[in-house]
Amino acid sequence: MTPFQTIELQRPHTAVVTLWLNRPDKNNAFNAQMISELLVALEQIEQDPTVRVLVLRGRGRHFSAGADLAWMQACAELDYQANLDDARQLSELMQRLYHMPMPTLAVVQGAVFGGAVGLVSCCDLAIGSGDAQFSLSEVRIGLAPAVISPYVVQAIGERAARRYALTAERFDGARAHALGLLSETYATGALENAMREWVDNLLLNSPHAMRTTKALLQEVGSGELSDALRHKTEETIALIRISPEGQAGLRAFLDKRKPAWQE
User: Fold this and answer.
1) Which of 97, 159, 211, 238 could form a disulfide with 122 if both were Cys (CB 3.0 to 4.6 A apart)?
2) What are the residue ranges in the chain where pLDDT is below 70?
3) Nearest-CA neighbor of 127 among 66, 68, 201?
4) CA torsion sign, 197 to 3 to 14 to 89?
5) Bridge-partner residues for 55, per DSSP?
6) Can you tell me the distance from the alpha carbon of 129 to that of 172, in angstroms, rounded to the nearest whole number?
7) pLDDT given at position 2
8) What's the pLDDT at 77?
9) 3-class SS at 61?
10) For the range 191-197, what are the long-range contacts, defined as Cβ-Cβ under 8 Å and sequence gap of 24 or more?
């Protein structure tokens, strides 16, 4: 597996990969190198059919303080085209994370600022400590949360996104939970066990069914009805019923025994 300097990949379970942001001395602030390494890591994980769950975490006290100051200073000296190329890399990262085929779980603590809110928004599920601090802080330094904005809007809604993107005010884990950004909050000391429970619960489910469901829900989006969407849902259930895991799961259910993926 590719050696990394700013991130770390761990395999705590044969079916689970933990992707760590690993610059604790910089509060896991990301720069061009981290973005590049994250893209490589996500491609590796995406191509591994044995991965059933991806967990995204940050080493140290903070999940991520957002963009690295030295990186932002360097970007300020670039021309438009160079900045556009840089933005496209970050955009590719967000899109790739959002479209990972397996369920993704963000586990956050401490600071979750700027682009880090985008990373959390791109994950299917997110849990965090109640005292975690979130902020769409870009406008405070004369910037905009541009690349991450579609994912943030999907995660917390248009009205809330306008509030927090325009005010840059901080909000805690409890508020993030109320907004829908976090699925649940826990005391800091309970976060590790909670993460294991979430992963264990996901591993009870058919890997193929979870990937199919995730892809379907991304296509369903806000649920706006159309003939094309109706036909897609019909095809999806018909195909999964005749799939090997669909057949095996139904047989196991009818026989009152565990399916193979739970053994």
Assistant:
1) 97
2) 1-2
3) 201
4) positive
5) 18, 105
6) 9
7) 67
8) 82
9) coil
10) 191/107, 191/109, 191/127, 191/128, 191/129, 194/127, 195/55, 195/105, 195/107, 195/127
